[in-house]
Amino acid sequence: xxxxxxxxxxxxxxxxxxxxxxxxxxxxxxxxxxxxxxxxxxxxxxxxxxxxxxxxxxxxxxxxxxxxxxxxxxxxxxxxxxxxxxxxxxxxxxxxxxxxxxxxxxxxxxxxxxxxxxxxxxxxxxxxxxxxxxxxxxxxxxxxxxxxxxxxxxxxxxxxxxxxxxxxxxxxxxxxxxxxxxxxxxxxxxxxxxxxxxxxxxxxxxxxxxxxxxxxxxxxxxxxxxxxxxxxxxxxxxxxxxxxxxxxxxxxxxxxxxxxxxxxxxxxxxxxxxxxxxxxxxxxxxxxxxxxxxxxxxxxxxxxxxxxxxxxxxxxxxxxxxxxxxxxxxxxxxxxxxxxxxxxxxxxxxxxxxxxxxxxxxxxxxxxxxxxxxxxxxxxxxxxxxxxxxxxxxxxxxxxxxxxxxxxxxxxxxxxxxxxxxxxxxxxxxxxxxxxxxxxxxxxxxxxxxxxxxxxxxxxxxxxxxxxxxxxxxx
Length: 475
Ligand code: UDP
Description:
This protein has helices at 21-31, 50-64, 78-91, 100-116, 128-131, 134-138, 158-165, 210-219, 241-254, 273-284, 301-310, 325-332, 345-348, 361-373, 375-392, 395-411, 456-464, 466-471, and strands spanning 3-4, 38-43, 68-73, 123-127, 144-148, 173-176, 191-193, 228-232, 259-264, 290-294, 313-316, 337-340, 355-358, 443-446, 449-452. It is an alpha/beta fold. It has 3 domains: 3-193, Glycogen Phosphorylase B (Rossmann fold); 210-391, Rossmann fold (3-Layer(aba) Sandwich), CATH 3.40.50.2000; 422-471, no CATH class. The strands form 3 sheets. Strands 1-3-2-4-5-6-7 form a 7-stranded mixed beta sheet. A 6-stranded parallel beta sheet has the order 10-9-8-11-12-13, with helices on both faces. Strands 14-15 form a two-stranded antiparallel ribbon. Helix 1 packs parallel to helix 16 and helix 9 (241-254) crosses helix 14. The longest helix is centred in the last third of the chain and has 18 residues, at 375-392. It starts with a strand and ends with a helix. The structure holds uridine-5'-diphosphate. Uridine-5'-diphosphate (UDP) binds next to helix 2, strand 9 and helix 12.
């Protein structure tokens, strides 16, 4: 049997106040016909990284709605996770080929995991490339299979993409964070665009009073009388921690008392973490104003919560990024963010909200300094960032999107890129459901159809290449 991950209990009612009553009612209505349905989510790690974060919150809520939702993880040896990380990097565009031996390692581990998947489910959702081969090795039976890709696969390394693509042919649906990420020759007909979301009630995001947050950071050695810049991320080259250190050093020329915290986690399926950790420590060169913390030294959800709350600026200097939950986490806490203009990040900070999007170390440093030196502008930006997260990136919205997909799969409705059957109006670029009061503010007509957008950013992307957004998928 695959290893199950224990999750807590959660009730949808506890989200009243953070989600509108109409959204909560809609969720109940949509879940009603799905009661008793057996849904399995499978990924590669129970901690570290955004996918485990999402599942830990979404699975208990599905159960509260009467769906029998389980979460299991695959297992593998070191060699397997080296290969899956190479595949992950290749799908994000890294120059890398897989040897015959590495392909065999992937196949052998996938086959072993497939034989461990013994129970019967109606819907099986496999997350990211690590799990992508399970369907082919297991066989479909009567379940519907969904591949949920969380990474930026817009410009994959062709060799690695071809290898993974061959495992995808039988899926009933694929889910991507943005339409841009859908590779043109994806062999799956039904494609959904569903951006992730944060759980406002999880220990990482719940309201932490200022005094407690300060105690938490004081305890681990952060100097609270100095301005603080923080990046919270797996230690991964795509998150560019070394670039963060360089940008911080540039910013410190203008703000000498500034300190930096790099908070990183080691995930079970990410063997690169230790090498990056070593590089960070070498670059840090024992500078007492650069702190490095990890989950292995006890920096967990509450500490991350305190960092995201008390930092003067949160940085997310990614070079590639599927979504970057950490951006919404910081914005939700009213903290301004300086982040790489890549992947799903501009979606969260569309139209200049929340802080600054940057393209280089120099721009990162300049944006940090400006946010530190112009408190009134900064607090306006932070407020707008929090509002955007409240409107679009909280868990109940994500759950609504996921229930819509499950309902469509169970009822074999056509591809949901034509969302008219849902009675929900969605932005065609980011896929987000638009509340009644948001509709009509930004719109475009294409081929006689009207499209509505959540932001100027999405409208701009649509107008630049409308065909892309109306043609993805089979409808
Ligand atoms: N995270 C954490 N501790 C750390 C580093 C990261 O709890 O030291 C969490 C972070 O708060 C976020 C998730 O891991 O919830 C990372 O998700 P994101 O989408 O930003 O990036 P991913 O790791 O999935 O690429």
